[in-house]
Amino acid sequence: MGAKTGRAISAAQPLQGLKLPSHVWRHTGERLLIYVLLVLVALMALLPLMWAFAASFTPNARVFDYAFPFSLRALFPVEFTLEAYDAIFARGFGDALKNSFWLSGVTVVLGGTINALAGFAFARFEFRGKRILFLTVILLPFLVPVDLTAIPRFILVNSLDWRNTWQALIVPGLGNSLAIFLFRQFFEEIPQDLIDAARVDGASWLRLFFNVVLPLSRPVLITAALFLFLQQWDAYFWPLLVAPRPELRLVQVAISTAVEEHRTRWNEQLAGSMLAAIVPILLLLPFQRYYIQAVTSSGLKD
Amino acid sequence: MKQLVLAVSLLLLAVAPLAAQEATTITWLNCCNWPSEEVIAEFEAENPDINVEVETVGFNALFEQIQVRLGGGASDPDVLSVDVPVTAGYGLRGWLLPLDDVFSDEDRADWLPAALAAGTYNGELISAPVSTSTQLLFINSDMFEAAGIEVPGVDDRLTYEQVADIAEQLTQDTDGDGVTDQWGFSWEQTVRIYQLQPLAVGLGGQSIGDDGLTVDGVINSQAWIDGFTFYSNMFNESMVAPQDDTIGTSDLFWSGKMGMMIAGPWNINRYLREAENIEFNWTIARHPYFEDGEVTTPTGSWHIGVNINSDSPDEAKRFVQWISTGAGAEAWWRRGSGDFPAQQSVLALFQSDEEFDEGVKYFLRVAADEATVNPDPRAVSPGYLEYEQILQDAFQDIRTGADVEESLNLAVARIESEMAKYRG
User: Which 3 state secondary structure label does DSSP give A144?
Assistant: First the structure.
């Protein structure tokens, strides 16, 4: 338990570092200025979303009535209608949502387990070629654009006869170098004494991993789960390539169907985007503190 | 009675092998979420031994899909929609099956000559013409009348100089807040060579050198500099066209915020679908030209080809033959993409069908005729995609104020460098 408290304190340190000296706060004028700036920045981020929300309830031909030049009237629907939402669900958006939930969920469970085990192996085991493996398999993919590997990955999936199957969507998304990297960094900080004590008590490596290490790793688990979930939730190019059949259509691909050759059904595209955005927002809001902890702190200290 | 039973039994025996035969499924990778169900159903009804499965993706995604799938040697899609200027590039890479054995001389004679030529690579037809296109000047008549400007007739052809002059009168800050909220003019595709090529070609320029690779001395010639100086002025000097392209030109026009746009006749179909929400009067005129130049219009659209690695090349060819000629081509125009057909016999229906005698649909008849007025195809080059992308960058720079000559010279250097790999 002591280790848990220690980790929590260290995780809070970067936030404490942001605090300004107390005398600054005494100057109400400065405080006001900061709030005004913060509100402005928040508005810059929120206004496009608010417009998109209003536009999703507007007939397509009226979407830009107040948007260019922009006026505040644009933040309210013109001739309120649900036609965009009706249209996207009639075109199978509900099925696409279900497919994306299923794919993201499976990836979180399987990918989370695999990446955590890999991170643990890199953090705690010594084996031949460990350093070179870490550099080439984990760090190098950070530097290579995903598009560059699309053709070989496609050839592989094609040769396995996996086109238009769930495994074509799931398997390539399981290994995630960023998640392995985060797990490895986090697990390296777990006190060696704790590991040794469990081993002395006769725990197998797997038991130690699941019963000792994982319960201490909530921030990194949640962060990796978010990465994996969002990676699949936002996937567009790969699913279009390997699983173009309508019954496997995912949410981002479904949104793109509102774009025609010479016209975009903006209200439908925005309606789809609003629904697709709600899920990550609902996930990130409650879990963002863990996310910040895992990214800013390197975990437990000895 | 016995005879009848015998006859029926014989008939059933004769039909049984056909019924037992499973239909071959082919996949068609097409673009832009075109509505294709009805047309496919018609084909399948006529060809019960073939099922067509459609995969449809957005315009940009189509090129990536083809690049990865055909580049990776996949056997599907069996059939693919081909944007006509990339035909040569696909031909060079050997991705498309020659189609010369598929079409009769009659079929070939029916296609617009420019379309047939554009689908041919090294003397072989590799992508069959399906659609063609043209451009018109769309006019917000209410805005003209409010400014006291005479509205042109549908068969009138304004000069670019007249367009620029009228656009200045239409560009206004109607609520006096210092921000322009009514624009005079723009092009629908503000930075794409498809729509901008007439600016240079109309003044005597060429799209690319005769070898399909050289651009030095071509896209930085005086015709290009003059044409794109006019283009630059519309955005940067008279400022009648919005520099900001956050909202597309056609969206601005159909929101009633723009007086004129050069745009495709597909906008007429768009209006027909959204008429109840469009509250202003509008009309069309013919594509503009320079006072001292020639009339020339953009052309080219979609072709269709067969994957060289297709497992069902015969079935794929039958589908391609059906949709690019005769009744299939008409079905695709009427109930599919809605793009102008590339078959002269189908195109002629715009002139003969009563449907196009009056109202907004009459504009389609004018457009069909405009498609035959000196159409100028885009560059035929194995490096077309690179050529188009680099020109797009140059037009974007010019539109936002960069020097015209410098931008074109920079594009020359970049394109020449890209084309080096195709020079063998």
Answer: coil
